[in-house]
Amino acid sequence: MTGGNLPKPWLALALAVLLAAPAWGANSSTSAPADPVDGDADYLAAAASFANGHYGIAIGKLADVLKRYPRHARVQMLLATACERTGQLAAARDLYVATLAGKPDARIEALANERIARLARRPVVRVTTAPSAPAAQAELTPEQVAAMSVIYPEATRKKTDHFDITTNNPVLADLLAQSAEAALERVRRTVLGDALFPHRVELTVYANQAAFRKAQATADWAGGGFLYAPQSDGSVRRVVMLYQVDEENRFRTSLLARELPHELAHVALKEFFGQAACPLWLEEGLATAAEFDGGRSTSDRMAELLSRQAATPLAEMIDQANGEVDRPAAFYIQAASWTRFLRANLSDGQMKRFLAQLKEGQKPSVALGRSLVLDDRPGWLGSIEDRWHKWAAEKP
Ligand SMILES: [Zn+2]
Which has fewest Cβ within 10 Å: 52, 80, 215, 338? Predict the structure, then answer.
């Protein structure tokens, strides 16, 4: 396909989509062999900007060029490289994957594969647990809480079937040894559809937030984080990072009920999606669903957002690219609510089809429409949004 007569969807899909989850289907084609892109003024200007290290300018121009030459392998590769050099690694990876999906020539194929492998070797460090009030932890006695509030100078290490636990409190180490496997069970059921998780996870509990942040350079609201780091020998380091006491030096009871299953869910999702992009709302929504209260903690706040008419339209949220979130607190609430709604209303088969399509790189809205067999009915997304909002207003 060449020239200016693009099919309508392409006009609607702007840069955001080009840089987000690949929207290209399995039957995408490569560009024409006689290559008019080489005479394209924007392409030449973009290449010059790129050569001079002006990657931001190159990205803007290349996105325009891609609208005229959709799925053009060389344009995608240059755009991906510019993204990579500006630290937009997820967008870069998606573009390399999309390039491969277009069946490029052998040289570009080899280069794209090499780049994807290179990106995979960069550790993914993410801080993801939203700020939250401590969950009620009825099983813990005040004596246990007091005992686990003490920070000992020496580390205690414990091993369980799946975890290597490190913490500076032996009582907490014992409790984690019991509850980490239970948290993994919950993650397997809520996130992995009962799939096995034959991997080891380092579970490191820092003394306090200052120590956690010093080790991980994280946002000051973060309650936990995870690391999924492929190693050069082909193995993967999986780490869940938490911290023991709050600003008042009291043991954080939410650590067991919320942050542990939440961060573990992120590690498991990384396993499931591999190189494919998981939409951020789904990732955070599923991680929140894995918490022991199943994300119900967010339902009051979702109802409140709706009563203020402050919810982001679903059509905007569902295909939102990672890294585009400008209201994180509201985003977490909506992601958790929407994901819970889907889980409550989709059959297992529909959910499986939805996840499988996402894994193939399908756009979330398209994947959802297809898994519900609704995508040819106009307005289906709007009616699902109405149903979701009615459901959420009742604080389920
Ligand atoms: Zn998270």
Answer: 52
